[in-house]
Specification:
Blueprint: E1 4-7, E2 12-14, E3 24-25, E4 34-38, E5 42-49, E6 52-55, H1 57-60, E7 67-70, E8 88-97, E9 102-104, E10 107-109, E11 113-117, E12 142-147, E13 157-163, H2 166-173, E14 182-187, E15 200-202, E16 209-210, E17 219-223, E18 227-234, E19 237-240, H3 242-245, E20 252-255, E21 273-282, E22 287-289, E23 292-294, E24 298-302, E25 316-317, E26 327-332, E27 342-348, H4 351-358, E28 367-372, E29 384-387, E30 390-397, E31 412-416, H5 421-437, H6 446-454, H7 457-463
Parallel strand pairs: 25-30
Antiparallel strand pairs: 1-2, 1-14, 3-13, 4-5, 4-7, 5-6, 6-11, 7-8, 8-11, 9-10, 12-13, 12-15, 13-14, 16-27, 17-18, 17-20, 18-19, 19-24, 20-21, 21-24, 22-23, 26-27, 26-29, 27-28, 28-31, 29-30, 30-31
């Protein structure tokens, strides 16, 4: 379990360990408001006017004066790093601690202070004030925490974080979390920055994004008893969720469409392909128990191979579950007549958070859950989730948060397809062998050759190495 607590003005107050990405070094001008305040302690801060730096009160408290370092790339605690031409060192004129600052049982209240500089900072490419935000960031806001590690050879760095829901903050930190004054963020890295007072800057929240028609060429709509999304994984096979395909003997598959092809008027797009199913293969062990789906995968075998174009192409299945903090894209349509293909970004939650949100409804062995970085949603199940152009999962269903979660984040439960890759390959091999046995060696169907050429080499090797069923 991990996270970061921030003061409401967005300064790091407490940083436990977590997650997989590392800090990123920056160019010297990327955070021109970054400051180091040296008094009784050394802490970070941010230049908010040419003559004022904001920092944490518990760092500045008890100090009558301080040196402020601005514009430095190397960690200026060390004298050897203070020779940078762009750096400025300015003495404080006054240190103003919040009137109501106090510490009770290691909890800091009103933990802000302002260092008044003895002279204005010179505005350069490397030294510039930053505006204070007047609003609390929205859930899913992408933020950057910048600062130094306390080593002589360390340069200015940052790492990415994203805002947690208040209920999760209380779950992680209990009564130590002061909801009225603090925010807590998911830390998307195992690395950390050593100082308190590191400034956090926030960009605008992400929304769903419309795409060009060729950006997700594997996107499919499967129309049977229900309409669901899916993904083309070979020229003749589409993967989708079993609870959508179950009960349907046949289906119509729509490939290459930009507008939502449920509506007939949207089926006239020149690049679109409409292909009937030949067979629908439901996972042998698929079942539903108390609104929970197990082995929730199915393969739709097309009656003819899809034509490979700019707008219709299979996607490789990932054989590994993505790492925590991985950026992923969920693509699909909203069920409106005038809606075009869209996607929104997601980041994977820690397993403990998934259990906290969903309780026993979360199946750790087959699923993972993601934080949605947007308030918008895509309506269909089966929407494919891709990471670096590999298919990692399918949206299986949205489930309600536990009853004690008062402000539930709109998250998604995703089928972990890496667990089903051997089963998928086994079914496709059975399908190929079935065609082979019904065809002469000289008249082998062309779509079989085409599929074998498209399947990645790493996936081909797996076909003959497993009889495992999930």
């Amino acid at each position: 379990m991990c996270g970061i607590i921030f003061r409401s003005i967005l300064f790091a107050a407490f940083v436990p360990n977590c997650f997989n990405q590392e800090t990123e070094e920056v160019t010297p001008d990327l955070f021109p408001y970054q400051a180091l305040v040296s008094g009784y302690y050394y802490c970070s801060g941010a230049l908010i006017t040419v003559q004022h730096v904001i920092t944490t009160a518990h760092c500045a408290n008890g100090t009558d004066e301080a040196d402020v370092y601005l514009g430095f790339y190397g960690y200026p605690y060390y004298e050897d790093n203070r020779n940078e031409e762009q750096g400025q060192i300015i003495q404080s004129k006054e240190i103003i601690i919040h009137d109501n600052y106090m510490q009770i049982s290691n909890k800091q209240f009103q933990d802000v202070a302002i260092v008044v500089l003895s002279k204005p900072a010179e505005i350069t490419l490397y030294v510039q004030p930053i505006d204070l935000s007047t609003e609390t960031p929205s859930l899913g806001a992408y933020a950057k925490l910048s600062g130094w590690n306390a080593r002589e050879d360390n340069n200015l760095q940052y790492y990415p974080v994203e805002l947690y829901d208040t209920d999760i903050c209380i779950y992680i930190y209990g009564s130590a979390f002061l909801q009225s004054q603090l925010l807590c963020f998911q830390k998307l890295t195992t690395a950390s920055l050593d100082l308190v007072g590191n400034p956090l800057s926030v960009n605008n929240k992400l929304e769903t994004e419309e795409v060009t028609p060729d950006l997700f060429p594997y996107q499919a709509l499967v129309g049977g008893y229900y309409y669901c999304s899916g993904a083309l994984i070979s020229v003749q096979h589409v993967i989708t969720v079993a609870h959508c395909a179950n009960g349907s003997e046949e289906a119509t598959v729509y490939l290459g469409f930009y507008a939502y092809p449920y509506y007939e008027k949207n089926r006239n797009e020149e690049q679109g392909q409409i292909i009937q199913s030949k067979e629908i293969i439901i996972h042998d062990n698929y079942m539903k128990i108390s609104n929970k789906y197990f082995q929730d995968v199915a393969i739709v075998v097309l009656s003819q191979p899809a034509e490979i174009t700019l707008y219709v192409q299979p996607i490789d299945l990932s054989t590994e579950k993505p790492a925590l903090g991985t950026y992923a894209k969920l693509s699909g349509w909203k069920t409106k007549e005038d809606n075009n293909l869209q996607y929104y970004p997601l980041r994977q939650y820690d397993t403990d958070i998934c259990f906290y949100l969903y309780g026993s409804a979360f199946l750790q062995s087959q699923e993972f859950c993601y934080q949605k970085l947007t308030n918008l949603s895509l309506d269909l199940v089966g929407n494919p989730l891709s990471v670096n152009n590999k298919l990692v999962g399918l949206l299986t269903y949205n489930i309600n948060c536990m009853s004690y979660i008062t402000t539930c984040i709109t998250d998604n439960i995703i089928i972990n397809l890496s667990q089903f890759v051997p089963w998928v390959h086994e079914q496709i091999e059975i399908e190929i062998n079935s065609h082979d046995s019904n065809s002469s060696k000289t008249n082998k169907p062309t779509h079989i050759k085409q599929f074998k050429n498209i399947m990645p080499d790493s996936n081909k090797r797996m076909i003959n190495n497993t009889n495992q069923r999930y």
